[in-house]
Structures are given as structure tokens and as C-alpha cells.
């Protein structure tokens, strides 16, 4: 099997490995690379641009999920792109991968940087981490952007859930192939087999955060592809829990909810993070009063 075909297969099998075939060929330069010691983790982050801080959290496997969209987002604000535990330049530890503890890391980093409140944006795995950051640490999140992630496990199609359950068993095969790929060469210190195994352990665990989502204080933007890995019925359910889809906004728009929903045409879960329309959608949301 050719490398690119493998990467597509790996992504279909592991939704968390969302942007691998798009980004593996192009690892952007790091303008301002730093490390922070928080929660016993040696967390890598880079800073690009100026203005209000936006914490940017990548999808599973690929720390460069957003590709050139990172630079687009940085045109109007300070983007702080974080490498999550075990990804990219952030080394792994003995701690299991859990969205809750990763969210704690993000909150601790915001505190470490003395940002007060920051906007937080994540994609796929990163969106789940961003969601947990807002749920567990509302005091550090101003606005929240969630790109292609569910609020409960049944938000995925059944075959996606089944794929997560097989990821651990296939971790050695996936890890070996990614290690030999351009992405593996860009991040040679990553133990890819271990990362796939940990993501498999994370992905197979049932979760339902809907009750917590209903209590989120941060104004939130949901972004999904029109051919996403998330079921459309779940997208609507997620939107309703955030207060959307309950009434006509009225001629003057005064009855519209504080949060927003975007469905991006001609995209999938695997292309959404690098979709050229994404920065404009996000910036319009972040710029609203």
C-alpha cells in the first residue's frame, strides 16, 4: 500500500488522525517556539501574530492540522498553537490521554502565560480538549470554537465508533507506517505506536458531555463539514443544547442565540481544518460584539 493510501486508511480508521494526508507533506516553520512546565508536562507552544490571544489546538496525530490556516488566523490576532501531550514537540508521559486532563493542561498554560481569558479553538481531538477546557475552567475561556467534534460518543457514525475500538490493536502497524512518512520525519521523537495505542484507549471510552455543554458560559461557534464524521442529527442536537434552533430569530435578529453554527459545504472531517473558508468564518465569530 502506498504511503498516501495508508494515511487515508489510517484516518478512516481513526477519526482522531484527521488531517494526516493533507498536512504530512508540509510542516510550517515555527515563528516563536517555547516550552511551558505545567501539570508535570513539558508543553510546546508557538506564538504567531499579535492581538487578542487565540489558543489553537490541533487534531489527533498531526500537530500541524491547520496548515496555512494558522497563518491566516494570525493575521488578526495572536495565535498560540499548542502541541498536546505526546504530539509533535511535546513529549509523552506515563499519564493516559484524556480530554479532561489535556483541558487542564490548556487552562494551566493560559494561567502560565498570564492571559486571563483567551479565545480557545480546537479541531477534532483538539476540539474535544477545548470543550473540556471550557467545561472545567470557564474562568480562562472567553470564546470557544469547536471544529468537528461531538459532545457524546454516539455523535459518531457507528462504523466510526467501531474503528476506535480497533485502533489499539492496530497501533503497531499504523505507528510503523507513520514513522516512515513525511510526518514521522518531521517529528522523529514521537513514539507513533504508543500514540496510536493511547488514542485508541481514549477513543473507545464512552462519554456524554451534553449536561456539561448546557452549562457552558463561553459564547461558542460550532463548525462542521457537510460530509462530516459526526452525524447530522447529532450536530443539530449539539446546537440545540447550546441554545440554538429553538425559535425564529425575528426580523431584527434579536431572538438569535449567542452561539453560532456553521456547516461548511464541500468538506469532510478530514479536510475541514485546512479549508480556506475556515479562518473567515472563525474571525467573523470572534469579532462579533
Structure description:
An 8-stranded mixed beta sheet has the order 1-2-4-3-5-6-7-8, sandwiched between helices. The chain has one domain: Alpha/Beta hydrolase fold, catalytic domain (Rossmann fold, 3-Layer(aba) Sandwich), CATH 3.40.50. With 289 residues, the protein is an alpha/beta fold. It is built from 12 helices and 8 strands. The longest helix is centred in the middle third of the chain and has 14 residues, at 99-112. Residues 1-28 have low confidence and may be disordered. The termini are far apart.
List keywords for this structure.
12 helices, eight-stranded mixed beta sheet, disordered N terminus, Rossmann fold, 289 residues, alpha/beta
User: How many structural domains in the coordinates?
Assistant: 1
SSE series: HHEEEHEHEHEHHHHHEHEH
> What is the number of helices?
12
Whole-number average pLDDT? 90
> What is the top-level CATH class?
Alpha Beta
Cα-atom radius of gyration:
18 Å
Taking pLDDT < 50 over at least 5 consecutive residues as the criterion, the unreliable ranges are: 1-28
For the secondary structure, the number of strands is: 8
Physical arrangement of strands within the biggest beta sheet: 1-2-4-3-5-6-7-8
Separation of termini? 51 Å
Any guess at the CATH architecture? Answer: 3-Layer(aba) Sandwich
Largest sheet: 8 strands, mixed
Q: Say which CATH homologous superfamily is assigned.
A: Alpha/Beta hydrolase fold, catalytic domain
Strand content: 15-25%
Q: What is the share of helical residues?
A: 25-40%
CATH topology: Rossmann fold
| General shape | globular
